[in-house]
């Protein structure tokens, strides 16, 4: 698991992702000092209850929602914000942030 300083960086970045936009685990990692894409994924998986962070706006490098226990909920939350998935489940590159 990432250090508390790296986790704080990850959370700060994720909090800035605008509604209706997405970014990748790797992009978040590149904006930190030392995180990897896997660390970002782990941080999203282990968020405390009631955190309020837009975790659902972080997707994988192929611009798809990674299959996990919350994947259906993640897609629903993104669709509710106007994010459209193509026939292969990909999000348009136009929606990538930053």
UniProtKB/TrEMBL annotation:
Pfam family, one: DNA_binding_1
Domain (Methylated-DNA-[protein]-cysteine S-methyltransferase DNA binding) ranges: 8-83
Keywords, in A-Z order: DNA damage
GO terms classed as biological process: DNA repair
MF-aspect GO terms: catalytic activity
Gene3D superfamilies: Winged helix-like DNA-binding domain superfamily/Winged helix DNA-binding domain (1.10.10.10)
Protein name, entry field: O(6)-alkylguanine repair protein YbaZ
Organism: Onishia taeanensis
Source taxonomy: Bacteria, Pseudomonadati, Pseudomonadota, Gammaproteobacteria, Oceanospirillales
């Amino acid at each position: 698991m990432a250090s508390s300083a790296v986790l704080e960086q990850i959370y700060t970045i994720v909090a800035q992702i605008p509604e209706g936009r997405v970014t990748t685990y790797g992009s978040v990692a590149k904006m930190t000092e030392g995180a990897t894409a896997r660390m970002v994924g782990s941080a999203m998986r282990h968020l405390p209850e009631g955190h309020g962070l837009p975790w659902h706006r972080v997707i994988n490098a192929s611009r798809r929602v990674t299959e996990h226990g919350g994947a259906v909920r993640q897609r629903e939350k993104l669709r509710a914000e106007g994010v459209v998935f193509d026939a292969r489940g990909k999000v348009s590159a136009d929606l990538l942030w930053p």
